[in-house]
Amino acid sequence: MPKLSVSATVPTILEEGVEKLDLSDGSSSDEDEGVQPHEKAIAAGQPNPAYCVRNIEQHAFGRREIEIAEQEMPGIMALRARAKDDKPLKDAKIVGCTHINAQTAVLIETLAALGATVRWAACNIYSTQNEVAAALAHAGYAIFAWRGESEEAFWWCIDQCCTPTATWTPNMILDDGGDATHLMLKKHAAAFKHIKGIVEESVTGVHRLYQLSKAGKLCVPAMNVNDSVTKTKFDNLYSCRESIIDALKRSTDLMFGGKQSVVCGYGEVGKGCCQALKALGCVVYVTEIDPICALQAAMDGFRVVKLNEVIRQVDIVITATGNKGVVTREHMERMKNGCVVCNMGHSNTEVDVHALRTPDLLWERVRSQVDHIIWPNGKRIVLLAEGRLANLCCSSLPSFVVSVTAATQALALIELYNAPHHRYKQADVYLLPKKMDEYVASLHLPTFDAHLTELTDEQAKYLGLNKVGPFKPNYYRY
Amino acid sequence: MPKLSVSATVPTILEEGVEKLDLSDGSSSDEDEGVQPHEKAIAAGQPNPAYCVRNIEQHAFGRREIEIAEQEMPGIMALRARAKDDKPLKDAKIVGCTHINAQTAVLIETLAALGATVRWAACNIYSTQNEVAAALAHAGYAIFAWRGESEEAFWWCIDQCCTPTATWTPNMILDDGGDATHLMLKKHAAAFKHIKGIVEESVTGVHRLYQLSKAGKLCVPAMNVNDSVTKTKFDNLYSCRESIIDALKRSTDLMFGGKQSVVCGYGEVGKGCCQALKALGCVVYVTEIDPICALQAAMDGFRVVKLNEVIRQVDIVITATGNKGVVTREHMERMKNGCVVCNMGHSNTEVDVHALRTPDLLWERVRSQVDHIIWPNGKRIVLLAEGRLANLCCSSLPSFVVSVTAATQALALIELYNAPHHRYKQADVYLLPKKMDEYVASLHLPTFDAHLTELTDEQAKYLGLNKVGPFKPNYYRY
Amino acid sequence: MPKLSVSATVPTILEEGVEKLDLSDGSSSDEDEGVQPHEKAIAAGQPNPAYCVRNIEQHAFGRREIEIAEQEMPGIMALRARAKDDKPLKDAKIVGCTHINAQTAVLIETLAALGATVRWAACNIYSTQNEVAAALAHAGYAIFAWRGESEEAFWWCIDQCCTPTATWTPNMILDDGGDATHLMLKKHAAAFKHIKGIVEESVTGVHRLYQLSKAGKLCVPAMNVNDSVTKTKFDNLYSCRESIIDALKRSTDLMFGGKQSVVCGYGEVGKGCCQALKALGCVVYVTEIDPICALQAAMDGFRVVKLNEVIRQVDIVITATGNKGVVTREHMERMKNGCVVCNMGHSNTEVDVHALRTPDLLWERVRSQVDHIIWPNGKRIVLLAEGRLANLCCSSLPSFVVSVTAATQALALIELYNAPHHRYKQADVYLLPKKMDEYVASLHLPTFDAHLTELTDEQAKYLGLNKVGPFKPNYYRY
Amino acid sequence: MPKLSVSATVPTILEEGVEKLDLSDGSSSDEDEGVQPHEKAIAAGQPNPAYCVRNIEQHAFGRREIEIAEQEMPGIMALRARAKDDKPLKDAKIVGCTHINAQTAVLIETLAALGATVRWAACNIYSTQNEVAAALAHAGYAIFAWRGESEEAFWWCIDQCCTPTATWTPNMILDDGGDATHLMLKKHAAAFKHIKGIVEESVTGVHRLYQLSKAGKLCVPAMNVNDSVTKTKFDNLYSCRESIIDALKRSTDLMFGGKQSVVCGYGEVGKGCCQALKALGCVVYVTEIDPICALQAAMDGFRVVKLNEVIRQVDIVITATGNKGVVTREHMERMKNGCVVCNMGHSNTEVDVHALRTPDLLWERVRSQVDHIIWPNGKRIVLLAEGRLANLCCSSLPSFVVSVTAATQALALIELYNAPHHRYKQADVYLLPKKMDEYVASLHLPTFDAHLTELTDEQAKYLGLNKVGPFKPNYYRY
Fold it and tell me: I want to staple D324 with a disulfide (CB 3.0 to 4.6 A). Which of A477, B90, C174, D349 is the partner?
């Protein structure tokens, strides 16, 4: 096996230690320690087991979680209901590599209902809900994942999905971070040729795909669902509008009314944060590098400042730039006592947490995901999630958001799997066709009892549109 | 001792069992079982101990909690700093009966700093933070309280504070619910004559005081701080604006965007809920009995409806009326699957929870403070906190709100203790003088770096106002 | 006749000249010049005419205006419909002294429909809509008013209403500013004894009444409708929330998005202004003298500052304090080029306009109600309505707001006229009984298709309320 | 000259009559009648005059208007200041065909300051501000435009700009609606070959360009500035957010609080309308054909309905679809008395006004731009601007919005004029390069005292961006 490195975020996480990553409800933390399940399997003479999870006995509890998630994921369930007779994924053999939780379980079982066979591994060593993995395995799915995988186990699990066998010739990849694609390409180059398409979910994975494409190494069409309209708006604007409030409340119990806050970055995430904070009575400042976004912030009623101008007076600092080193030690030196620092951007680089690991500063863990960094003079800064995504302070993403993402992924798989050969070039990365994006949205409208208006023939002709869409040019900004 | 009943909410709580009332951080739950501390004290031959708490050894942890609370309670700390030289409560002997937690500890220690001696008991058998009680006892305060008091212990504790001794002749009462006042009046009628004033915090306690006053049984002036301006606005409008979001998020993880909700009652609490829900993207309906509040709701952009008009379509039902039987079984029969029912009003009567305790319905506890009520056809209703205050789903009130309340209580004590005899009649219940209300507000302005404008002499003369207030007529509505 | 001065605002207006007070739609401006109508009447040997208006021939146009106003004043029309059979004002003889326009015409005709006889004069020399006065006169009402009355004519008109005759013994006064009350008291002291009650609308008039009461000169009960709940909220919060936007747009066409503005005063008017400006994308600062209002501003998300802190940077300055000298020449010296100065408070004293009438500054009238004050260095300040109420820049108050006021006035008249003798003391000024306030509100709910919930018997008992109200204690703040 | 038809909207306007199109401040309406200026010129033996305007004597008044506009157009003035030394339009010979008012005058004079020579005609027969045209002509610009041009005059004016002469070989076109391009192509095909680029502003003109491009008839590169980011957001979202309020207030004086309204279409314009109406207390419903926009509406808190579901209950109907026949006679039959109908979309087709011109309905003009349509039963519908753009009810577009548009146009001209030959293909229509869009935004930031953050070298490298932009991929949605 060639030398592979675990995806970028993992090493940091490992350094910081397991105790800080408690995402569970506490029910299974004890089992995370000790022997890795795949070692037991191997030791038991099962190098290629049908599945590998922490404890199959937990399946009933996991099944209940899945059933609850089904109720809250109307879009993907509607897709399952509508398409299950057509079986648009008949004979599809999908390698999946995503977080494994109740919500992705609903996706997995939907793909199966649409005709696909799947083998699935986790894209993150800590995020697997063991009970859900157990429920899926118990239902006959080839699941290879548990909470607290070792690095070696991480790749072993993915490899269980990618390796072709007599009965398993994967022809599709659903990836979240690019690890399955990466391993397939490096280790199973021959099998990779059977792949008809890759659907990639994450910023990082998409970035890797564009690089592969540019380098001429991508020999299958790939679909970037990370930038589809519904996903972007839901995962970013609408979801962050709520999760920033939730994350701050759960971790600090602070009161928003009258608090001064600065949001670094006025992209979709920053817009959502600003809107929510303003709505709950905060005074909000914005920093931006892009004059267009800065002008939007101004027109939306926010003072656009450099961070230094307000750093001494704010109660809350939120990063949402996707950049690195946005909040530096120097900034933190100037913050006032009790200032809360919270990252809503895509990585743990925005706040220079490393610069806080100096002997003069005392770290005090005050509750899960909340540290006080204490200066020699007694000043405390409240750091959430050690500068990683503050969403981690919330219990989970809203199922509704995940439903949109899952429906998008499923439709992207259907599209790539069924598209005529000429539609997508082998070496390119595509955005989801607008019509599919619109279809995802339409799947979710009934939840809101929203009633769509239909064009009359005359109106459609006047607008030069097909009555069933797509309704907008590609450059439309929503 | 005459027959006394524990205040109204307690029996219900007892029936429902301890496991449903877990308000703690989990650190001390084990100790709640077993022998009541006062029994040990009595058994040890200490019928009148200096204090009685669960475990004095926990004092250091409690002290840290108090210190953190001090940071977040700027108003009461400012009062402590400003008045500690004047000692306006010199020789005051205060019987206190409130919740006992880090925040009330800050109040207690402030009263002491202003010159008072105190003896303190809990107003609720479940709400005491044992560590904080330990810290106070360790610091020399006469604290009688622990989490999970028996009914007998509850009254024993209060009695330790009320009973006069050679060194203890109480002359002030700070009450929350009226139990200390009640016991003093019933059991220590002679000692009651030494009381110079009562400060009462709760709706229930205030109601009791007005009844006593009306019945001619109140022989001391009492101050109703429950209806002071700052307290009303902070505890209700501003606090509920945030806690409704927090309570719903923590308990259900639902997404607000696009959800239809109905808020029953458009008083301060209802206004706060509506404002927050609308701000986060809900469609909000309002029910009202009072045409003035209904008109306000309409002008604020909410459809005013009867509950039956929307009950089938809403995703969230919130009660904030102070009334009983607002949401009936009949309403709940019509709710759609997954509808969340949440009480933000003052008691557990708003939602007719009792009517849900029928054999045909299955109750499933899905997490702390969240039950699914399951109909025979599988329909689930999500009931928060069993119809009691949904705030219980949040970890605690924001310290800032408590700071306002605490400062108000302290100022009311100072006013009653120092007022010339003729200012307050013996048998009446008073609102806090406006100037005191304004003073409480001014104590909290520095937190927001808010800078007050001062009247010039000419302006004050023009307006007919004293330059230092009060600034408004008594009927001003804010 | 004793020496009487016209109410305070008029002389200022006269000094500033008629051309600046053009409130009309332009249709009748020509007639304002020339002979005063009452001189013609007197010259024609009619010292006590049945009415006196500018031009009775305009009645048809005025009638159409009244009919349109009727459509937009649902509350007062509903009152007319409900009470016209009861005739609660039977035999009432009302002296009216208010603005005379289509909306007050609806009030006047409603009072008549309820049984009253009226004689009516204008409370302001410029605000009469001549066409409406003509329509009323044509319909048989004793109207004495025209646009552009001389001071002498102003008092002559009021006197036509107050002077008792063989057929006219006034027994009620509806006043707006106190001029009819004043004249009655000074000139017709004997007739004044027949008055059963005074209803006063304005801040100034109410102030005068309290002074009379204090001085022991008030010998009839008076009702202060200026501070009734519905009126306060509608005339101030809700109405100003819209009129500030309208006034600024009509006069300056500025764009709100991104503009920095400061609102002086956070009472109901200031709250309305702040809410609207924030909603349309302004950055809003607040100044306050009252710590309670300041704290509300902070919790509502506004920085509370002293005017000097922001005066150099703001684009818009709004006064809403009711005070004098809030914006001084010194402040205006520091304003930036193009800064708009706008008064939403109660008088023309808030902005020190007088201090701008110096030789170094050039005044340039750029459109009706808008002046540029030009500094020697070319800096321009945009002053609206010469510092008088910026509402003057809008065409009129929304009919809906006037409907609330008119219904309140009518109900106050009914209450005072029908109350048993002991209910109201001769020398006191009263607020409208809450039940009447609630009734006014209920008259307006159908406009919004708002459906009130009714208490069950059990609920009413639980709350200790009558099922039909009143629903709140007097100190309730809404 | 080939047969040319005036652009689509004009004939409708002509049919409806001049009196309904009064856009002026009233100062020059008299002159609109009578002889067309170019006839005088021709009669005077000046077939090719240096300019042709209504009355050159009005230049001083026009100049003052231009100077005021300069103050309110910071972006275009900043561009003028920054680029006037570089003269990036040196030797450019620009045919301009736009509205002619104070704001476009600032653009014209900026183009001249940057080195260009211009000849300019109006793109609309009614929108010319005669005084401004006079000021420009007086300053030496070749302006051919007046208010109330005949169709023949309209084309004559454009032809004066397009026709090449010894000293005039146009090499750039700035068009708004496509008429100059059209005439050039049809009548001056030879001269057309000298054109280096076309900048087109309007939806209609852009549509024509795409058709020409598709048909292979476009032989110069064209730039579609209509879809540039800043223009889209400013002209639509931000501008309409304010103008919907302004238009409705000025025309109807209605109160927004509590009104029910429906907005047809949730594009940028619809979003702006909804946001403003909600903010001022309306209950807002949305209709949509596109599921993505519908989902956005839902998540933003609006009920998504079919028009028929709410048509009987709403007080305000707003169209913002760009479609035809959105509000039909049938809908209007069901509206309630007093319902206001207002078009914010792009044309006069959205409301089927034609269907209201039936004998049973009475039209009553109640003020400029406001008609009451009266049903036999007395029901009135209030129609704004006869179904044309309700913006016409406002006095003008905010200068700030126009500044953004003008700066965008100028930069597009600079880009096309200076671009190396290979950058733009001859037959294509381009969007403004993102960097130019960002530059337009940056020109306007100082107005808001907004301070942009600069990337460090390290950050730029991390993001893979140039420190000066562009900062976003082309598909970014803002």
Answer: D349
